[in-house]
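Justification of resources, computational component.

The compute hours requested in this renewal are based largely on the per-chain cost of generating structure records like the one below. Each record pairs the submitted sequence with a full structure-token output. That output is archived, and it is also reused by downstream analysis tasks.
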Amino acid sequence: VQLQASGGGLVQAGGSLRLSCVASGIIASSNTMGWYRRTPGKQRELVASITRGGSTDYADSVEGRFTISRDNAKNTVYLQMNSLRPEDTAVYYCTAAMLWFGRGTQVTVSS
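The structure output for this chain reads:
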């Protein structure tokens, strides 16, 4: 299983980014897919997840600002991040079935 995340970068507070995670070796639509983030000195946080049935769940800290979605044809999961805050700065990781993790992509939000 390989999960290739991209889309991170530097953005000002209030801005938006969209992360992408292309999965191979696993069918994204048949598994729960999600995004974690990790900040130095803090525990890993599950930011968002989407089940095989399409149900979504979000951490309280991003509810209403982030949206997780899936493109079955592209076997890709997205994380649309709006109204970004400096505290959203972290390395974001894609996960498949909470068992496999891809390389992270850095998101930095400046104030």
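The first strand starts at residue 2 and ends at 6. The mean pLDDT is 95.
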